[in-house]
Amino acid sequence: MLKFVSRERETPEKRAAEERRKDFDEIYARFADARAAEQAGRCSQCGVPFCQDHCPLGNDIPDWLRLVAEGRLEEAYAVSAATNNMPEVCGRICPQDRLCEGACVIEQSGHGTVTIGAVEQYITETAFEKGWVKPIRPDEERAQSVGIVGAGPAGLAAAEQLREQGFQVTVYDRYDRAGGLLVYGIPNFKLDKAVVARRVARLEEGGVAFALNFEVGRDAGLAELRARHDAILIATGVYKARELSCPGAGEAHVVAALDYLTASNRKGLGDAVADFDSGRLDADGKRVVVIGGGDTAMDCVRTAVRQGAASVRCLYRRDRANMPGSQREVAHAEEEGVVFEWLAGPKAVAARRVRAARMRLGAPDASGRSAPEEIPDGGFELEADLVVKALGFEPEDLPRLFGEPALAVTRRGTLKVDPATLETALPGVYAAGDIVRGASLVVWAIRDGRVAAAAIAERLGARATATPALVAAE
């Protein structure tokens, strides 16, 4: 350990931009055994591990880094899996630069952070290869059942936690595959779909039932599900796209980010997608403008590059330092040829072009960030055959959709819950993930799923296994 002075930070081998532009394969190779051990050995084993404090799951990062450095990989996997239901997923898609790696003590001292995410992925991929990932086999079967609405990361994490304690678990989802945004939102070059399918298969083999193509409010109301099960967890995520507020927002060539990404992911899975096949959701040969600065916008610009777009520009109203997306993803996009228009906002969309205005940052707004202000006479135009709006997501009206007006919501439309247990206003009905927090990170959804599962288990007579939720205030 403590090799951070003599060894530099190192990431797994990354494919050249020109090569990776041509396909949707993941861009990083996996660490070789020796390289993973060397990188793990850079950990300073500090007395106050800020990396762990900045991980929403409280992962025991220094512990499993030490075990990797010592070649004790099976033990490292056991420690990693004890706090995280999907370490190989988080290792791929967490914005480590904003979480664990950004808080690394040796990063702060100028020596470059340990490559935590890549080592995390390496541990679990090795565990699957070696057969260390065991099937779910509860010590006892319980008669009580739990219904989970939503098969995204929060729902899948909760399903695993509850099934391990012997509860009968059914996961309901309106899509035809389990995984939620892990399957239909996040592109393959960040998360290969086989990784998600492997997790779902393990749950199925362990006795978790999946009711797919099932829409609450259409196939059954929430009241009916409550009658079927002893407890309910709502983990639907947030899918309603925020709209452009400028003239021309309804033009045919303006599309929502999730529609665009879902079409691309479905094509990658071999599905027939009419809007893609017609060209509407295919960027091939088009001049593409993506509006937004979050991770979803980065997924869109990098998808457009791989679809063969003639040009790809990202329009964001703040500067690079104030964008919400991962800086690592921005760097990947720039390597792949994406052009960023910082401090620029849309004014109007017309046929084959976007009229925009240059911006500057003024006084802080309600969120605490500097508010963008339009610069007089700073107008300009971008050619655009396809405009993708990636402005974030809002909750759907679940009380109406689920036929349950007593399901209380916050002023933002998210479900109102007890912050310690994640129980909603309806007894025995819990909620987790983005439908509580608003659009957030996969790692937070996993945490919430674990917290809700612990509260449900305790309600139904089993011991609690998770820590308090730390849910954002209304």
Quick structural overview:
With 474 residues, this protein is an alpha/beta fold.
Provide a descriptive summary of the structure in words.
The protein is an alpha/beta fold and 474 residues long. The protein folds into 3 domains: 17-130, Alpha-helical ferredoxin (Fumarate Reductase Iron-sulfur Protein, Chain B, domain 2), CATH 1.10.1060.10; 145-238 and 395-459, 3-Layer(bba) Sandwich (FAD/NAD(P)-binding domain), CATH 3.50.50; 241-389, FAD/NAD(P)-binding domain, CATH 3.50.50. 34% of the residues lie in helices and 16% in strands. The protein has helices at residues 17-20, 33-40, 50-53, 61-69, 73-83, 87-93, 105-108, 116-130, 153-164, 181-184, 193-205, 222-228, 257-268, 274-277, 295-306, 327-335, 398-401, 434-437, 442-459; strands at residues 145-149, 168-172, 209-211, 231-234, 240-241, 254-256, 287-291, 311-315, 339-341, 344-350, 353-364, 370-383, 386-389, 393-394, 429-431. Helix 9 links the parallel strand 1 (145-149) and strand 2 (168-172). The radius of gyration is 23 Å and the shape is globular.
